[in-house]
Amino acid sequence: MSGNERELGGSFALGPRRVHRAGYGAMQLAGDGVFGPPRDLIEALHVLRAAVAAGVDHIDTAQYYGAGTVNQLIREALYPYPEGLAIVSKVAVRRGTDGGLLRFDEPHELRQGIEDNLATLGAGRLAAVNLRMMDPSETPGRQFDAQLAALIQAREEGLIDGIGLSNISRLHLLRAVDQTEVVCVQNLFNLADLRSLDVLTECEARRIAFVPFCPLGLPGEQRHRLLTDPMLATLAARLAATPAQIALAWLLDLAPNILLIPGTRSRAHLAENLGAAAVPLDGAARAELTRHLPFARATGGR
């Protein structure tokens, strides 16, 4: 294992590639509400370059982040892209003029979404594209099959290397793997929200990468409650870490197929997040965290 692999939590397969388990999610580079330009353009570019300089080889993005702004930033900061950098995007959603999320999930719209990502990024192909479901409780049917077929065609034409799924149920995953290879699943999952545990378990059994979004809790009250939890603060102090690093280290420790993509707008927080891979959780820490799960239960509900 190389020095970067040790520092970034080892590696795991992302389709035909292997990537470091500590990656970077670019969503927060957009303006407030994930819409429009960044608060600080220069710092946004520095963050992206610092991530790659630290060994990050997995960047998560989407054309609808900032209505194209984030992909433009990635291109400005990193193009020409270093060999081995896996850029993963998602389709099936677009932003309305007010910034709201709208469906963009007809098969021809998925193809358009892939092409828009490639054009804005200036890339010839993407490491993977996630089919993002608006409602994970929807029962997958013919529409879902048609959506998968559109992504399969894009893969066959060389636009993408792998097909992923996002915001899904276990039923979506099982239906998808009956039709094609799935290289990653991206769902909400963190110390305060374990509702996708069955999806994680299925992914681990099938050796599919599981990529938790909002790994530090949903922005706002949930994240604040999690990161200010007294038990987490005490544990962080004992392990010479921060509460955020403990929350991220717990995810890395939970299953070998978990890939992290915490996002940030600052280089200081980037270094903190990547440092989580070097935080060793001992048996006492694991037991304490397990007793306290889910954190939302201990701190007043979701």
Mean pLDDT rating? 94
Write down the overall geometry: globular
Question: In percent, how much strand structure appears in the residues?
Answer: 15-25%
Portion in helices? 40-55%
Number of strands: 10
| Radius of gyration from the alpha-carbon trace, in angstroms | 18 Å
Class per helix and strand makeup: alpha/beta
Largest sheet descriptor:
8 strands, mixed
* Assembly state (oligomeric): single chain
Q: Which spans of ≥5 residues are poorly predicted at pLDDT below 50? A: none
C-alpha termini separation = 39 Å
Work out the helix count. Answer: 13
N-to-C series of helices and strands = HEEEHEHEEHEHEHEHEHHHHHH
Description:
- With 302 residues, the protein is of the alpha/beta class.
- Helix content is 42%, strand content 15%.
- The protein has helices at 3-7, 41-53, 69-78, 107-121, 142-156, 170-177, 197-206, 221-227, 230-238, 243-254, 267-275, 283-292, 295-298; strands at 11-14, 17-20, 24-25, 58-60, 86-95, 101-104, 128-132, 163-166, 184-188, 209-213.
- Strands 3, 4, 5, 6, 7, 8, 9 and 10 form an eight-stranded mixed beta sheet that branches.
- α2 (41-53) packs across α3 (69-78).
- The radius of gyration is 18 Å and the shape is globular.
- The mean pLDDT is 94.
